Predict the structure.
Amino acid sequence: MTIPIALTIAGSDSSGGAGIQADLKTFAALGVYGASVVTALTAQNTRGVAAIHPVPAEFVTAQIDAVFGDLDVKAVKIGMVAQPATIDAIATALARWKPAHVVLDPVMVATSGDRLLSAGAVEGLRTKLIWRASLITPNLPEAAALLDGAVASDEAAIEGQGQRLLAMGCPAVLIKGGHGQGGESIDYLVTASTTIALPASRILTNNTHGTGCSLSSAIAAHLAKGEALESAVRNAKAWIGAAIAGGDRLNVGHGHGPIHHFHRFY
């Protein structure tokens, strides 16, 4: 049996709800074999992040080379990159291995509100990683931070920020509307030729830990299976909506609980 392979390059979440652990669960739930490169260890749970221990950049490189040197990776998801040296290592490796699809989730702040990225690393995202990605998936605050601007509050402003992010070199941007207001959560897929609004009913739940990580890895999984970008985004959104809705069936932790990655199975 030949199975599509996706690689996640991200931080580890000791509570299992976000980061590497969420990505691997997502890949498995969607029928994709998952490989991983750990960029940082975190001591965290559903209530917050207690400590971050970055993995040395040279070991990040060693992990990437080990995976690409043996596995036929069809898509890469990049999450928490922790520090500028890690970004340099990832950018150099991407240039060397040239994966067909790269989904970059510019993780800056955890669901709990804890900051996960230094100011220097944000500049590295802008100049060294964004233009190497096939798609970037910032939420509204992350898009604003990447542009040193205010959080967009309407469709015209969101589309404008999307176009400015495209100018950094990536061919597509998915600006996620989960931090917005109203009964609908609207994501916007922005390319040079079009902007597609992707609405979904806003789900009132406390189980949102790992939502952003899981959406970007779901898109990478669908790309690894050979889907076109718009189809991959739409299918990933449908899956993440069901996973968020299913989160209330789980009783994990005392803070922002995880989504239900395996809602289709139990």
Remarks:
- The mean pLDDT is 92.
- The two ends are 25 Å apart (CA to CA).
- Helices lie at 19-29, 57-68, 84-97, 119-129, 140-146, 155-166, 211-224, 229-246.
